[in-house]
Amino acid sequence: MPFYDEQGEPLDRICLVQRSPRHFQLLRPISFLEAGRPESQRVEIPAHDPDLPAVGDNQTDLASVPPFLWGLFASYGRQTAAALLHDHLSAEARHGDPATRIDRRLVADRLFGVALLDSGISLLRMLIMRSFVSVQKYAEFRRWQASAMIAHAVLAIAFVYAVVGVVSGLWTAPLGSSVWMLSLVLLPAVTAVAWWRDAVGSEDGACSKRP
User: Fold this and answer.
1) Are 31 and 44 in contact (CB under 8 A)?
2) H-helix or E-strand spanning residue 84
3) From CA 143, how far away is CA 164, in angstroms rounded?
4) First-to-last C-alpha distance (Å) of the chain
5) Which of 161, 111, 137, 132 lies closest to 67 in space, CA to CA?
6) Phi, psi for 20 (deg, rounded to 5)
7) How do 30-32 and 43-45 pair as beta strands?
8) S-S: 146 plus which of 51, 82, 139, 160, CB 3.0-4.6 Å?
9) Which residue, 152, 161, 154, is CA-closest to 199?
10) Chunked in runs of 10, what are the mean pLDDT values of the chain (211 residues)?
C-alpha cells in the first residue's frame, strides 16, 4: 500500500474527527508515494487543525459522492486515504498559479485513480469515481467544458437506451438497419476522444515533495 503514517510506516489507521454530518478533520498527517517513484515525489498530506472551524481547506468531506449515488458509493471506506490525497492536491491546485490549475488537477486526478486501485477499489469503480472528479475539476475552473462533458454523458446514455429499445423490440429503428444501431453504439465511444487527456491523466503524474 503506498500510504504511510507520520513515522513512515505502512498506514494501518486513519485518525479522523467528525465535525458535522458530512465534514471531518484529519488529526494525524499521512503521506503517499506512488510505486516506482523516488522519495522526492512523496506527497505529504498534513493534518487539519481541530482548534479551528472545519471550513474551507481545514476539513474534508472524504469522497465527494453525489447524493443520487449514495446507495452505490460510500463517502468513506477503502477510498478514504485516496480521497484525503485528492482533497489535499486539489487544494494546492486551487491556491496555486491560475495558469497551472488544470494541469495540477490532472495530476491529482491521476494519482487519485492510482491510489484507489492500490487501496483495493475495482477498476470499474475507480473509473466512475475518477470521472466525477474530472467533471468537478472543470465545474470549478472551466464551466463550459464541464457542461459539455455532462451533455456528452447524457447523450451517450440516451443512445444506449435507444439501442436497447430497438434490440428488445420496444420500437423500430428509423432506417431499419443494423448500421443505424451500430452508429449509436459507436458514436459515444468515438466522440469520447475529446476527453482523452482526462482519461489518461498527466504524463508527468508526479508531485514534488513540499520543502
Assistant:
1) yes
2) helix 80-95
3) 32
4) 24
5) 132
6) -160, 175
7) antiparallel
8) 139
9) 152
10) 90 92 92 92 95 92 68 75 93 88 88 92 87 77 70 72 66 56 64 59 44 33
- Cell, residue 149: 462533458
- What is the reported pTM? 0.72
Q: Which residue type is seen at 122?
A: S
DSSP code at position 54: S
Spatial separation of the C-alpha atoms in residues 20 and 88, rounded to whole Å? 19
Grid cell 486526478 is found at 109
Q: What is the residue whose three cell numbers read 492500490?
A: 118
Other Cβ atoms closer than 10 A to 143: 10
CB 167 within 8 A of CB 182: no
**CA-wise closest residue to 117 among 86, 74, 79, 87:** 79
- Rounded to whole angstroms, the Cα distance separating 166 from 195 reads 28
